[in-house]
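This part of the workshop introduces the protein records we will be handling. The question running through the whole workshop is how a given chain folds. To make this concrete, we reproduce a full record directly below:
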Amino acid sequence: MLKKVSKIATLFCLLAFAGSSFAQTAETPEYPQYGFWSNWGIGINGSFMFEPDVKQFYGNENLYWGGGYNAGLGIILQKEIDRGAWLRFRYEFPSLFANANKNNAETYANRAPGWHVTPYEHDGNTYYQSMDKHHAVTSELVLSLNNSFHNWKPETRGNLYVFAGGGVAFTQNQARGMYNAGIQLDGGLGFSYRVCDRSTLFCELEADFIGDAPAFWQSGVGFHHTDFLASIGYIYNLGITAADQELIAQRALLTKEQFDNLEEENEALKKEVDKAKDNEKKLRGQLDDLANENNRIRQNALAQAQRVSDSLNGILDQLKNDQLTYYAIPFSVLYANDSWHVTDSEMIKVKAVCRVMKDNPDLKLTVVGFCDYTASDAYNMKLSQRRAEEVKRLMVKKYGIDENRISVDWKGKTVAFGDIHYELNRRVSFYRVIE
């Protein structure tokens, strides 16, 4: 009988797979494709089990596994593969209320009706065998009859399905003192109803075939008992990941017209990339020329800076000899238009002034900022203040001059020399404080 059941189940699965290839038509909405971590479901179920007496069920006088009725629980983890198939993993404990039994007639005489207790003779003694207490870890493939043989409709809530699979079973029969690990094959029919996007209720009819290992395939005894279960349960769908939701939204916006436009844009971009590669070759040559020119300018700037440094050193030597006779130091820090930051070339002058002040501890200076006539009076007054204060900050922070030896003043554009745009008007000058 078992061979017939296996052949029928195998044939039915092949038909379901074949039917799913033709079920979807051109008018059927496309089933959304999700990543591995999307649409996992987790659930729990309760079951009512009937286990027939093995000797009577299989007609084998060498088997003494008893039967009966029982109830249990199960935990389910499942994953949607496509519109017509699911993969699920289960832990089942269908004989949750099977009790430990003793091998004597008095114990089983008090059993309630419905318990199958099998007496058998062994070595001149009479033994009584009760049902097993077992649990199993299995995996099954679930095939939707609705979506395999009919068009997939996302609004459909009811779903009729079949499932088949197997796994590892752990059997415990305390009456005989047997604790065996074996295999379990299972299959059945179920119906589920999607209450909402995340919640699904289901009921199933299932048959389990359990055999001990390795005797299952070595001795030819086969399955030592069979269970029939009726289950109801609940599945909670964990939903779609954020990455898949974004991908689905992008696919929803990609119409045929948009796809054609994107193809045209893609071709245009390819041409632009080819043109950009040609321009890149030309730019590389220009960059090499610019690099050479930059090196030349840099060398000239270094030579000029050295000349300025030599000139300033001469001025410093002169200042050391004549500093008491000068009211103002005879050079100023110059600026670009609308700027108060001291450039590297002008920083040499600030350094020179600080050197004079370090060599003359009693010398005090007033730093005065000026502007040209380019902007308004109020703006230029603020700009000249920033120039003077920035020079003082550099003298104190960078060169360590006592800030009490430096005072700050600013004149805006109230004092000008020559052309109003002349660079000399954008300056900071240094004046001795005569006490």
Observations:
- The CA atoms of residues 381 and 412 lie 4 Å apart.
- The longest helix spans residues 256-322.
- Residues 20-26, 100-116 have pLDDT under 50 and may be disordered.
- The first strand starts at residue 40 and ends at 51.
